[in-house]
């Protein structure tokens, strides 16, 4: 099996390594365009290959590698995908072994699901969307690309989420609600009605 490249070497990238190791995957290295904590990264025993731009321009790049984007920002994942997608064709979806998934789900390329996440049935998760620790996506939900669910987010049944939406820790969305693209849902918010594109809502109920 070809090596996995993790794009992003901060805390989220190291959490991505946790998932890869739990899946017994071969990780070829990290790349990152931002400053990294070299000491913390060194303890993980996986090489740092420099910046993404340096790798793309070097003879180290192996087009048979697979990659996953271990970066918390959905907008950053969108930008990175534009840069790396032409050079490395395969983006891997990584679901931690403790993730539970039901039947009839569609999981896009590059999706990341951390320990304890729950995906029930007839759920669509768009490419490069991240489900953090203990996030729950219930039946018949539709999540676009580059969505971020922080730890403990709960999406009830038949929720629709546009591309690039961000949900803070512990946010809850009630059944049948639509969340627009590039929205921000604050930590602990309870969303009871539809939210338009590019909005920020907070509170209980969210406003």
Helix and strand layout, with pairings?
Elements: E1 4-7, H1 11-22, E2 27-31, H2 38-42, H3 52-56, E3 66-69, H4 74-84, E4 90-91, E5 94-95, E6 100-101, E7 106-107, E8 112-113, E9 118-119, E10 124-125, E11 130-131, E12 136-137, E13 142-143, E14 148-149, E15 154-155, E16 160-161, E17 166-167, E18 172-173, E19 178-179, E20 184-185, E21 190-191, E22 200-201
Parallel strand pairs: 1-2, 1-3, 3-4, 5-8, 6-9, 7-10, 8-11, 9-12, 10-13, 11-14, 12-15, 13-16, 14-17, 15-18, 16-19, 17-20, 18-21, 20-22
Shape: globular
Helix content: 10-25%
Reported for the largest beta sheet, the result is: 7 strands, parallel
Determine the structural class based on helices, strands and strand pairing. Answer: alpha/beta
Radius of gyration: 17 Å
Q: What is the strand arrangement across the widest sheet?
A: 5-8-11-14-17-20-22
Question: Could you tell me how far the N terminus lies from the C terminus, measured between alpha carbons in angstroms?
Answer: 48 Å
Question: How many E strands?
Answer: 22
Mean pLDDT: 93
Percentage of residues in strands? 15-25%
Order of helices and strands: EHEHHEHEEEEEEEEEEEEEEEEEEE
